[in-house]
Amino acid sequence: MTSLSLTTFLAGIAAGLFVAVPIGPMGVLCIQRTLTFGLAAGLATGLGAATVHLIFGSLAAVGLSATITAWLSVGAQGLSLLSAGLLFWFAIKISRRTVVMGSPLQRREGWLRSYASALAFGLSNPVTVVLLAACLPSLTISDDPKAIPALISGVFLGSVAWWILLSTTVSLVRHRLSARALTLTNKASGLALAGLGALMLASAFGLKLN
């Protein structure tokens, strides 16, 4: 790897962390699933989020930021409504679930559902698009196309590193909590997602919550 590619790779890692680290809806979902089902569920959710970052990061890195921004401006309301709907759906499911100790997410289908639902939500979340479209154009190396894979790989690995760290940390805390505490935390996560869904819904209609 050349020095330019290495620099671009490290810049991509920083961009991946920049997008992943802020605790928003995806962070709440990752924490809740790790607390409820265990480390595998949190990692599957985080991998879904990282895949979204990889997809949008690839589009932005090859110079399609303007296209992404234009697409977002046209479909912003629809995306916000879809995102809000998914958040309310997650909130209802989570709030109605009682956590049973010692019942990790063991089935492969469960991991795939966690991954797929996180992927679907990430693709519909306009905030993800805005963050990547904002930070990646300045990192794109237009005169050296060979450096672009290094940038994209860095974005993906930076995002994955954060989700591994978050899921692992929450998993360690999980073993110290009682079933009642986990259930209460579950319901609090549901309320948090419902609140974020309300904000997304207000944003879709251009409302301000005072």
Offer a quick outline of the entry.
This protein has 210 residues and is mostly helical. 79% of the residues lie in helices and 0% in strands. The protein has one domain (3-204).
Give descriptors for this structure.
210 residues, mainly alpha, 0% strand, globular
Portion of residues within helices: over 70%
Indicate the low-confidence ranges by residue numbers. Answer: none
Q: Strand fraction band? A: under 5%
Rg is: 18 Å
Characterise the protein shown here.
- By secondary structure, the protein is mainly alpha-helical.
- It contains 8 helices and no strands.
- Helix 2 (25-37) packs antiparallel against helix 8 (179-204), helix 4 (65-95) runs antiparallel to helix 6 and helix 4 packs across helix 8 (179-204).
- The model has no long low-confidence stretch (mean pLDDT 76).
What is the topological layout?
Layout: H1 3-20, H2 25-37, H3 39-61, H4 65-95, H5 108-124, H6 126-135, H7 148-174, H8 179-204
Helix pairs in contact: 1-7, 2-3, 2-7, 2-8, 3-5, 3-6, 3-7, 4-6, 4-8
